[in-house]
Amino acid sequence: MVRPRPPVAPSDGPGLFAGCPELIGTPATYGREEEIFGEGEEAERVYRVMQGAVRTHKVLSDGRRQITGFHLPGDLFGFEPGETHRHTAEALSGTRLLIFKRRQVERMATRRAEVACQLWGLATRSLRHAQDHMLLLGRRSALERVAAFLLDVDQRLGGTGTFDLPMTRRDIADYLGLTIETVSRTITQLEGEGALLRTGGRQVSLRRGRMHRLVEV
Amino acid sequence: MVRPRPPVAPSDGPGLFAGCPELIGTPATYGREEEIFGEGEEAERVYRVMQGAVRTHKVLSDGRRQITGFHLPGDLFGFEPGETHRHTAEALSGTRLLIFKRRQVERMATRRAEVACQLWGLATRSLRHAQDHMLLLGRRSALERVAAFLLDVDQRLGGTGTFDLPMTRRDIADYLGLTIETVSRTITQLEGEGALLRTGGRQVSLRRGRMHRLVEV
DNA sequence: CGTCCTATTGAGGAGTATCAACGTAGGTGG
DNA sequence: CCACCTACGTTGATACTCCTCAATAGGACG
């Protein structure tokens, strides 16, 4: 969730891949919790979010799950250097995607350097997000994790300070490497310290100054 | 450390960038613990390890550190999508590098799609490593982390099962999101369970069957 | 209104961090 | 060549964060 939105806006046009008119995507819709692709499946398609949201995750055999990222409109996902997907991807809610043939994109990338550069940029931005998240998972407390997460969601949803969390406590917990109980308790604690207000349902209103002080560098 | 070696072998030639003869790197050597670049500095160079090893890390203001990766001969590092480095890079020991001008590489990438594709492949492989590491940091126990780490180092150093750890306990701890004491205790525990032998200094000899059983999926 | 799923809260415990002491190895200067 | 010094590593005692298990409350939907 920390990843900044890539500069590829959905307004590039309904059928375009990263501004390349030769690549036309096939529209598709997915329902809440529906799987888009599974870990281990052949990676023959590439996806672009048009509406809704997608999460990608990895699981261990005993069910422990780590969400590696949330994908919002404009984001591309599903690229793999190898032949198979290393993640499972699922729609968070009703979601519209554009599907591209991976071979077609790769062939285009070998011909048009700007497409290949865009792919590189996308991968590098994802990498930066992943590295920031490693620091969070390896070295931050539960309070810092939740505060950083809430600030990030706020920013991605417009930065007004008041918003509805688009995911469940389970998703948040599996993204932050915590349990749902710890997430819940931490939000309660943040409310007790006056760093946020719960204004009904999943809506929260942040005191961004106080929140930032909890995260610091 | 988990990242598999990229297919770009150092034997590509002393001055070549990813098989591209137009790009000639400048050789440089760095001593133990010497900084190669710092977080926040302008990212105008790109590096390739020829000999030795490099670690990249991020730090919080209070000193908490997360090592995001170790780079061995053949690996490229230092790429950034933005203008500044998001990491600090330091040599683990006496290390020989090849330095490339970032602008030059990018210009070459816009002209030659195969260079851009190589950059994409490098970033994507790093991303895969980062995502595997997120699962480790977010959801694995200390025992699993250390066992996975040792198996990975063994594999990267030839897979014989017996090797010298090329980094200190502090580096291991900061890579695995643990403390040096926990790393030390966990290695002792692994020895007690007959999953490895300490054969003097930093050398260890793994019982890979037992180690693998501890890591599973 | 009941059912199911999600979220909150509490009590207790496991796992890892922290603080401290001691042991070991490698390098330096006498 | 040896003694010292410093950095690294191990082990122990204790503390604390976060997890686990359990019960309750709140919302969405039929």
What is the helix fraction of residues of chain A, given as a range?
Answer: 25-40%
Order of helices and strands of chain A: EEEEEEEEEEHHHEHHEEH
Largest sheet properties of chain A: 4 strands, antiparallel
Q: For the CA atoms, what is the radius of gyration of chain A? A: 18 Å
CATH class of the largest domain in chain A: Mainly Beta
The CATH architecture name of the largest domain in chain A reads Sandwich
CATH superfamily of the largest domain in chain A: Jelly Rolls
What's the domain count of chain A?
Answer: 2
Q: Determine the N-to-C terminus distance of chain A.
A: 18 Å
Tell how many strands the DSSP assignment of chain A holds: 13
The proportion of residues in beta strands of chain A is 25-35%
Largest interface: A-B, 47 and 46 residues
Pfam families (chains A, B): cNMP_binding, HTH_Crp_2
Domain Cyclic nucleotide-binding (chains A, B): 30-78
Domain HTH crp-type (chains A, B): 140-217
GO molecular function (chains A, B): DNA binding; DNA-binding transcription factor activity
